[in-house]
Amino acid sequence: MNLKLFKISFINLLVALAVCAANASPSKNENFLLKSLEEYKKGNYQSSDYLIAKYLGDVESNRLDAIKIIQKRQIKPSPTSFIDGEYSNNFLQFFFTRTLNQWGSQKNDKDDNILVKINSSNNQYVSVWGKPYIETWYILAKNKKRQIAYTVGMSTAKIKIGKIHESDRLLQPCDTFEINGPIQYFYEPVFQDINKNGKKELLLRYNVTVADGYVQVLDIFVPRVKNNYCHLSHKKSYYGRNGLAYFHDQKIKVSEQTPNKGESVLGSSLQTEKIYNSENKLIDKRVVNNFLRTEDIGFLDPFYEPVLKNDYNKYSAYLKICLKGKEEIIENCEELFDTRGPYKTEEECEKRIFQMKADLPKYKSKFEPKGYLCEKLSGKS
Questions:
Q1: Burial of 41 by CB count in 10 Å (0-12 exposed, 13-18 middle, 19+ buried)?
Q2: Chain center to CA of 373
Q3: Is the peptide bond before 259 cis (omega within 30 degrees of 0)?
Q4: What is the pLDDT along the chain (381 residues), one digit of tens a residue?
Q5: 272 near 291, Cβ under 8 Å?
Q6: Backbone dihedral angles phi then psi of residue 46, each to the nearest 5 degrees
Q7: Which end of the chain, C or N, has fewer beta carbons within 10 A?
C-alpha cells in the first residue's frame, strides 16, 4: 500500500505508520513489553531488546506501543547516531519502520537469535538469525528541530546453512557463521550464477549502521564444491556508504553518497555510481543525483524489481493471505510476492502459487490464502 504523505514531522509520520502497520487491539503478548521494561531497569539491555522484537513479531502487536516502551526505557534518550532529515519520506519509512516488521517468524534459538530470512536452493537452505538491537537516532535537518527515532535492528546476524530432508524438514546446520553489526536490515539470501559458469554463488546483502547513516554491504560466497553451500569461500565484498551495493542484470552496482562542491557530508546532493562486471572489472562510473532525497529509493526497497526486456510478457505471482478467523480487510491481510519468477506462462505461475499455498503453514501458520494474482509484466526497461 502506497501512502501519499504530506509535510509533517517524522515522529508523527512514524506514529501514523505504526498504527497502520498493525491491528490496534491489545496484543496477547503485551507482557513482552512489560518484561522488556523490567529487564532494561536491571541493566539487561540485550534481553530487553530481544523481548521488544518478540513482541513486534506477533501479528496482533501494536507498533506504537512498542515505540512508547522504547521511549519509556530511556527517559533521557542518548542518540548514538544521526541521519539526514532532508532524505525523502520513502527512505525514512524504510529506514525506521521496516526494522519494526522483520521479526515475524516467531522462531528463535537458545541464544535469543530470531529467524528473519530464509531461502533455499538444490535442497539446501540458508537462514539468517538476528540478535535484536535497538538504536536511538537523531534526525537532523537544517533549520529544523532535532527529532528522535529508533531502529530495531540486530547486533549480529548468524547465518545457518543446512540440508533439506525429502520430507521438507530442515536438518541441522552443516555450517554456521556470524556477521557483525549493528545491522539495520538484512535482505533475503540470493542464489545466483553471476558469471554463468554453472555454479550458483550465495549473495548476502545487508545494511550496517554507522554514525551518519548506513553502509550497504554485498558479500559474495562461492561453493568450493558445485552447488554445495556447506563449504563456502568468500569471493568479494562491495560497500556503498549511504548508497547501494547489489547484483542485477549480470552486473554489480555500487553507489556512495557524495557531496557537491561546497556541500557538507550531511546534505550531500549527489551519488557516485560504479558498475562492475562479474569478474570485478570496473565498466562504468558516473555521478548522479542522490536518490535518497527522492521518493524513488529503488533497489534499497527489498520489494523493488524493475521489469527487464527479457521479462516482458512473463507472469509474476502474488498470493493474498489473511489472518484466520479475521475480517478480510487491509489491517488483517498481507500480499506475498514470489521472488523466484517471473514465469513464461500463466500455467507455470499458477503452479508456483500452489506451492506458495502449500508452504504457507511453515512460515505464517496464523494466516490462510484468500486469493492470488498472476500479473503479466509489461513496460519499459
A1: exposed
A2: 23
A3: no
A4: 222 233 334 434 443 444 343 334 444 578 899 999 999 999 999 999 999 999 998 877 888 889 889 988 876 657 889 999 999 989 998 999 889 889 988 899 999 999 999 998 888 999 999 999 999 999 988 777 788 899 999 999 999 999 998 887 889 999 999 999 899 999 999 999 998 888 899 999 999 999 999 999 999 999 988 889 999 999 999 999 999 999 988 899 999 999 998 888 788 999 999 999 988 999 999 999 999 999 889 899 887 766 555 666 788 888 888 888 888 876 678 777 777 778 888 888 998 998 888 888 877 888 899 888 888 776 543
A5: no
A6: -65, -40
A7: N
Whole-number Å distance between alpha carbons of 375 and 178: 38
Give the helix/strand (H/E) hosting 253. Answer: strand 251-258
At residue 280, what is the residue type?
N
Three cell numbers written together for 266:
550531511
Kindly write down the DSSP assignment for every residue of 212-267, as one continuous string: TEEEEEEEEEEEEETTEEEEEEEEEEEEEETSEEEEETTEEEEEEEEPPTT--STT
CA-CA distances (angstroms) from residue 119 to 151, 233, 258?
24, 19, 34
Q: How far apart are CA 378 and CA 376, in angstroms?
A: 7
Phi/psi at 252 (5° precision): -110, 125
The phi and psi torsions of 10 (rounded to 5 degrees) equal -65, -35
State the cell numbers at 371.
Answer: 486469493
Q: Which amino acid is at 51?
A: L
What the block records as the C-alpha cell of 62 is 501494536
CA distance 328 to 87: 35
What are the percentages of helix, strand and coil residues in the chain, rounded to 5? 25, 40, 35
Rounded Cα gap, residues 339 and 203, in angstroms:
14
In whole angstroms, what is the distance from residue 244 CA to residue 246 CA? 6
The three cell numbers of residue 356 are 506458495
Distances (CA, A) of 50 to 45, 73, 233: 9, 14, 31
Nearest residue to 373 (alpha-carbon basis) of 336, 327, 322, 328: 336
Measured CA to CA, the distance from residue 71 to residue 95 in angstroms comes to: 18
Residues in the chain: 381
CA distance linking residue 293 with residue 238, whole number of Å: 23
Degrees, nearest 5: CA angle 262-264-269: 80
Are 130 and 113 in contact by the 8 Å Cβ rule? The answer is yes
Identify the bridge partners of residue 255 per DSSP, sorted by sequence position.
244, 273
